[in-house]
Amino acid sequence: MMNLSTLLQKIKENPVMYLEKPSITYLHSFLIGYLSTRTEMGLDREGSGIERFQEWIQKREKTNVSQSWAQILIFSCGSDRNAFYSFFELFERFLNDESSKKDENGRSLNYSKNDLKIYVRPLYELLGSIKKRPGMYLGNNSITKLDMLLRGYSLAQREVGILPTEQEREFEGFQLWVQEKYGINSGQSWSKIILFYSVDEHEALQKFFELFEEYLNKNKSLEIEENSG
Prior knowledge:
This protein has 229 residues and is mainly α. The protein is 67% helix and 0% strand. It has 2 domains: 4-163, no CATH class; 164-229, no CATH class.
């Protein structure tokens, strides 16, 4: 099971594998999905360090504005890409300043699979919550942020050995369905395809939920036909 520092090192070395491109905005959404899922599973009970990193960045930049650490870094670094590469150096400084967090017995705070909770929020329940309150989960209405959050959600489960659920397997088919609907044969993600045919990120997110509902209804209709046949 990877700890956060190990994962961040892997992302730094190969951002395209996890995020499609070096982007602090993508990274921020990915980590929201990843870390919140780990918390639901009973890991990171003392926090991942990102919460304290937020405070550390605010103090470093001498700002009290209600912006995420990613937004603060974009402002101070001048661009999303520059902020991505600066983040890793800054997070390392933050960890050095904090030093190793230990419990009252002086032992490192490590957890195993035995600490996992049984409950992990079902994918469609998560999507339903995001649809109702996108700002709470994504910061703003963005299909790209949704994509990154879901990638983090999936990775957190896979790395502790939780197999894809029926809902997750069905969601995997959404990629091919979107490609066929728009006649796209490239390796672009469902989010990139929908965004290309939308005015902006906001419209693309709305379109995603419409398309996903259409996809689910089609699957239900096919299932009914198969059962009746």
